[in-house]
Amino acid sequence: MKQLFAILMMGIFTLGCSQEVPAVSKTQFSKEALKQKLENEEGKTITVQEILNQHKGKVVVIDFWAGWCRDCLKAFPKAIELEKNNPNVDFVFFSLDRSKEGFDRSLEKFSMKEKENYWFSTGWKNDFNDYIELNWIPRYMVIDQQSKIAKYYAITPEDPEIQATIDRLLK
């Protein structure tokens, strides 16, 4: 009986959560996605387009995470290693914490204050996340020097395609 209950509960908690690779790997952002607003640590609103403009000419890795996400926290050491191994790449962190207080707490707790962080104050469901079919975190994307998507979908910083994409773009 306990096993049946455990299986039933796992089914309920994972309902709607899928780590499915999107059918199409997109190579650019829609106008609506680029207009999506996030907040920085100070609470200032900024669009995805403005963030990308700040990194024009650079390779960027976007790391989607949240302080409540166990998989994200397990991936942090490898994400930090990826960052250290690629000093010519800009790393930007998009938080899916559920509140500004949670975002601030996560930045402090996980020593993220020195990094470039933004928070989706609109929550998980928004034009940007819908466009990129965000269905799981952590998720990693590599953006090329022209702000196009070079690597659309990776769920671990150890995905060899992330490093291969970075190496190809930096040649």
TrEMBL record:
Highest taxon of the lineage: Bacteria
Keywords for this protein: Cytochrome c-type biogenesis, Disulfide bond, Redox-active center
Gene3D superfamilies found in the cross-reference section: Glutaredoxin
Pfam families tied to this protein: Thioredoxin_8
Matching PROSITE patterns: PROKAR_LIPOPROTEIN, THIOREDOXIN_2
Positions of the Thioredoxin domain: 27-171
Protein's cellular compartments: Cell envelope
Location, primary (coarse class): other
Name of this chain's protein: Thioredoxin family protein
Organism: Chryseobacterium edaphi
Taxonomic lineage from the root: Bacteria, Pseudomonadati, Bacteroidota, Flavobacteriia, Flavobacteriales
